[in-house]
Write a structure and sequence with these properties.
CATH superfamily of chain A: Farnesyl Diphosphate Synthase
CATH class of chain A: Mainly Alpha
Order of helices and strands of chain A: HHHHEEHHHHHHHHHHHH
Number of strands of chain A: 2
Largest sheet of chain A: 2 strands, antiparallel
CATH topology of chain A: Farnesyl Diphosphate Synthase
Distance between the termini of chain A: 13 Å
Oligomer: homodimer
Strand order of the largest sheet of chain A: 1-2
Strand content of chain A: under 5%
Number of helices of chain A: 16
Shape of chain A: globular
Chain lengths: 319, 319
């Protein structure tokens, strides 16, 4: 995995987490349906953050890897259902499960993995941890519902956008950091600080993700890049541009039912010209700054150095 | 609710459970989307069984009602996803959520209610109960996956059918009985006996449900009645008939892509003529007998009388 190759230990442990996922999600009727997702180019950020966070404490690596596995399965379950809604053909450079097996099967397959997570969690975790985890999964669902509700609403506020990505992406990042530290037996204050750090990194990550939809070509992104607008999901660059000078022109343009490649290129140009990308970059920078503010007070260790590195790279992401 | 009107206490408590569901599933973005399902003609068997079972013990009614609510929300979440797969337009005599809000929204709405269950469960239940519950939810998912895998397979065995309905329907009935008794502080042996009773009632109930698809008209069923065959889901009456004398003729007939009303009527006739209905009735009778065998040893109380009544009525169901 290119992303982690500098960090030998994490890279090795993530490979083990991968194998654990394959082993634990096998099903007689499904086979190893998520294997292509697991072995794809996905960066495995969430399980990596569990591992990195856990190493701030006294560390039982097996317990950490198990939680990392659960978090990644949970994330994949949400992706499977996301891809149904988005009609996504490609996920992590591979055919999506909805494209491969059909939408109907994908509903159950996502349900199955979601339930597998709950089953695995109910075996090992205490009630207060389970509550915390259930609340996060719930917040992901609410954010998805909210995002669906916002579809084709061209009066969205930046605040509304931030609320959705906070529930959808940042909450799961925060949980990965918080629970990683908890499983690693860190003291509660450190768990909470790492949780906050996860939230900021998650916000910056999602904003960058949404920016990349406007900048990248399909091949490097590993998924289709003009789906968001076509599906009626408006993200930060567009939301900012809609609320700005050329907003009126842009508004009438995105109301079209179908976009040609040329239409899409024009929207991207208008969003760029109208400052949507640079505004979103600034906001991502703000969250990166918040993240660095937390990192600088963390205890010195290998994990701290890694978090500094990764956070530094967030704004330079190309894929 | 016609089904429970003879039993004033249960009827009253089920009304309270209904109101609790409405109150606890409200969502800013969804509104009261499941309200029509809650106030429809659904028999609320699962929550009723929680209440009836709990009354075998020392009973904290509020705790019982809360668990009854969670079980019904869980059941509704699975129905919402089922209806996506089945293209069902009608559910409990009302437009289904997938018909009303679209398939995409229905994916999230089902996820949301499923997660609400886990959130509510994680607040109140001990680890061994949570494990039990998670295992059942998992078994429902596996059965759905299995059922989907079996689609359009005209070599299905009765054993395979029983395995699917055992995971899909009977497991949730068993859980309602078992956990009702557990919440009602019954001793473990009684909880387990009631769990077994729930399983047998669930098996009989599902077999009757599948028989009714061949006997009823749409209006009294509250859902479309020829969907199963059209969708490629083959249930007991058809499975028996396929494995029997006229099986070959039936086999070539159900392989058609589209059925007219006349085709469907002919299939129904062939299934009936070939003994599919009477075989299924016999099997339902076997499970009813097993249920009565357990009931007769239960301690004398109002709940026992009710279970006798209800079990006696299972085979007379018209809807």
């Amino acid at each position: 995995m290119a992303f982690w190759q500098e960090y030998e230990n994490i890279n090795q442990e993530l490979n083990e987490v991968r194998n654990m996922i394959i082993k634990n999600t096998k099903n007689k009727y499904l086979g190893e349906v998520i294997e292509p997702m697991v072995y794809s180019s996905g960066k495995m950020l969430r399980p990596a953050f569990v591992l990195i966070s856990g190493k701030f404490g006294e560390c039982d690596t097996d317990k950490l890897k198990k939680f990392a596995m659960i978090i990644e399965i949970l994330h994949m379950a949400t992706l499977i259902h996301d891809d149904i809604i988005d009609d996504a053909e490609i996920r992590r450079g591979q055919p999506s499960i909805q494209a491969e097996k059909g939408k109907n099967a994908a509903v159950f397959i996502g349900d199955y993995y979601l339930c597998q997570c709950f089953l695995m969690l109910s075996n090992d975790y205490e009630q207060d941890d389970l509550q915390q985890i259930a609340r996060v999964i719930n917040s992901i669902c609410i954010a998805e519902v909210q995002q669906n509700y916002n579809k084709r609403n061209n009066h969205l506020s930046v605040r509304n956008y931030l609320k959705v990505i906070s529930g959808k992406t940042a909450a799961l990042f925060a949980l990965s950091f918080y629970m990683g530290a908890k499983v690693g037996n860190c003291d509660l204050k450190l768990c909470q600080e790492l949780g906050r750090l996860g939230k900021y990194i998650g916000m910056a990550f999602q904003i960058m993700d949404d920016i990349l939809d406007y900048l990248s070509d399909e091949a490097s992104l590993g998924k289709e890049n003009n789906k968001d607008i076509q599906q009626g999901y408006y993200t930060l660059p567009l939301i900012y541009a809609l609320n700005n000078e050329q907003g009126v022109e842009l508004k009438s343009f995105i109301e079209k039912e179908e976009f040609t490649k040329e239409d899409y290129a024009l929207i991207v140009k208008m969003v760029k010209d109208n400052g949507g990308i640079s505004y979103a970059m600034q906001l991502a920078q703000t969250y990166v700054d918040k993240a660095f503010n937390i990192i600088k007070n963390l205890p010195e260790c290998e994990s701290k150095t890694m978090l500094q590195d990764i956070t530094g790279k967030l704004l330079q992401r190309k894929y």
